[in-house]
Design brief:
The chain is of the alpha+beta class and 303 residues long. The protein contains 6 helices and 8 strands. The protein has one domain: Alpha-Beta Plaits. A hairpin with a 4-residue loop joins strand 2 and strand 3.
Amino acid sequence: MSRKTLRITLETVTPLLLHGADNRTPELRPPSFRGAMRYWWRAALGGIIGDKNLKGLHDLENAVFGSPERGSPISLRIGALDIRKTETYLLPHKNKVWGEGIEGTFELILSQPRRDDALIWDAACASLELALTFGGVGQRSRRGYGTLRIAEATDDRIKAFPTTKRGWEFHVRRAAKLAIEAAAQLATEKAPEVQWDRAQSLATYPCATNAGLIRLYDLQKAHSAKDAVIAFMRQTRDKRALGGIGPRQASPLWVRPIQTGSSYGLLCTVLTSDFRGADYGYVEDFLKNLGGEPVKVKGWNAL
């Protein structure tokens, strides 16, 4: 019997491009969510202890999500679902590169089956909310695919997603703030020997730093999430704006559509890291030229 259980009802905003063992057949799998949670939890930890002690960071990451030597104290599974396969374009602004995705509603169940540990539980909940707020799950999740909406949750710490731009501004600040607090509490209790040296500018991996960016856009002509993604993609013909610069690296820019009333907008997040060829000044100018409003969160992208 689980000591703690969180059930979240999720609705797809854009198709989930998740695949099974053959890398072709659409399949809803918990490891995809665990991977997204781990990525964003690492970003939050970086905002607390930086990257000067990577072993300490790995220990705090593994305390929540496990390692090859020790399993995770957190369990994830898919519950009730009402999903369907859908045909979609991976490049919707060009109607090119066809693929199959998943749409619909399903339940994601997070639980702590073994020893009750409040700090681990808070960290897991915070990482899940971060992943669902700022990014997506599956292929092309940095470009608006795999976006999900929290419709309902059985724990008050997880909030249903807002439907206005101002609501999203509040939600973004809250989700980032809670994640930073959870990371700080876990680091204090589980790894008191780790010296905190927060990455002020650039770290060796993508994480929360002062160089990071969060911007909200209200695209009044975008009447669907797909329209919002297409509007953005049409602005990014110069690959430098996407972070597609050599040597080849994953883009530092995460883009997800958000509901802003009767239309859809975008939440754009930049997680910086120190790699050769990065030009974050260019990315920042590009995002400013698109308009929108910056969002500053103390401990995440601001002192």
